[in-house]
Design brief:
Length: about 140
Amino acid sequence: MRSLKKDKKTLYISKRLPATPILDDEGVETGEYAKVYDEWVRLNLDVKPISDAKEEQMFGEDSDKTLKITYTLYDSNNFEIENYCAVWLDVEPNGILTDIDNNNPMNNNYTVIKTINFGSQNVAYIKRIVGFKDEN
């Protein structure tokens, strides 16, 4: 079942890639790794707060920071949302797709924390990143 156009929100989403080793000033690996993400994709999907008692129980205290994306592969242009994807909702991506530079970070404000496939319908739960600069 497809969603109504009026219920859809524009969001940007990017899949997580394998981590990249962080190098020091001499080019030697430090033993730490940076998260890296693929180019983002713009989608118009149904995004709503969770409202089911079971969902609230599943996420506990984080239920007020968690949103539910309901979609079909047709809605998402065959883009399959995965756990740990970066999501930009109500904000435009700043073009930075790694967390290697703390002075110039990614500006995604949500992360996918759980995905469920119900056959023709898919659900992705996204959690607001704590400390995001535009957080209310």
